[in-house]
Write the structure tokens for this entry.
Amino acid sequence: MSTHFVDRVVLHASGGDGGNGCASVHREKFKPLGGPDGGNGGRGGDVILEVDPQVTTLLDLHRRPHRSAPGGTFGMGGHRNGAEGSDLVIGVPEGTIVRSPKGDLLADMVGAGTRYVVAPGGRGGLGNAALATTKRKAPGFALLGEPGEVVDVVLELKTLADVALVGFPSAGKSSLVAALSAARPKIADYPFTTLVPNLGVVEAGSTRFTVADVPGLIPGASEGRGLGLDFLRHVERCVALVHVLDGATLESDRDPVSDLEAIEKELAAYTVDDGTVPLQDRPRIVVINKADVPDAQDMADIVRADLEERGAPVFVVSAVARTGLRELSFAMAELVEAARAAAPEAVPTRIVLNPPAVDESGFRVTREEYGDGQVRFRVRGEKPRRWVRQTDFTNDEAVGYLADRLARLGVEDELFKAGATPGAEVVIGDDANAVVFDWEPTMVAGAEVLGQRGSDLRLEDHSRPTRETKRLQERERRAAKAAARGELEAERLAGHWTADDESE
């Protein structure tokens, strides 16, 4: 079975939905009005990423990119709350970067056990027992559970290694890793044999460090030519670079000096994250490989002075003949030790929670024009949006409760200020999950105006008739009576009934 290496995936995560609250009344013999006893719905589960040392690739997420956490269960009578949905924990390799679809950095997963909540679950709805007040003693409704958050994130794996071997394809990087460590990467005599980074552990005296064989780079790699961007990503976490130059290239337009200049240009053009040392500023070593090939040693002698003028030590080695490897390994160990000594003291990994900011400012009302001069008013804000999602619009009392909440928040006052009139079209939320209704101002608010359970008197028309309306109603009654008397007279004349019938 062939193995695959995946270092970039798009994860579609869905948090679990919260369970609905329960509207229930306690029933017991000789206690017809036992009071509300509906429990709250359970909270939905979160989708969480966690660094797992046993996971080395994002292949599993590549094959199954859609992940959903279980939702919470509904509340029940007898003050029984619904069960919470279990969290879905997804193991990722150490060194995984979490980004938004726009490229913003969300999390840097370093350290075993580090966690990041990708998609939080929705909160459960309150039962009618939790909604009871001194004025609303027996609510006939409950709140719905909130849906879990649905997000898309980009996961990128950046190899964690101390030293990175960079160079043109077929420069002998994989052979060098195989000669320095116990790693056994694929080695062949054609370009781009290595398509994934290979890691090897090297010991030089008392120093142990990790070497990464980065797949071959070509001019234009920093702009995405070939697989350059994918390859350069794995260089970002390395503290030192080793340029592996082909001393026996068969291409007439290439030599070790031009190869070094081309790779250095690509490293300088690659943009790293803020706070990270640019690739061109990191300590480096230059290695001329394939010294066992005829004329390669002569080429090394010719270009060595030019390479040393650039400030990096130069080593001539042969991965096949295993010559010069000891000196090279100790030189790499020296760079690694210097970087470790300069690094800040390690601190235990902490789990930092970064919940999204809650819009405590409330809401805002905007006036929108659409169609043929039609006007509507849109209410935006976290609180109104959440309240709408919690409302069961099939229950009049629940709708009245929503109206009370919006009125207390000041939505009606802002609608008046924005120019809204009774009957105006009002939209709460964004277009995806918006609720549209014709606005009627709430003249009175409070649970004391509620009728029987499951109804709300505020939804009925209790306006007092005007004098003109009363006159019209009186004329209609008189006309109806006159029509009835005329119909009876017509029946009497037609002989349908007689005076005897009338006396009876």
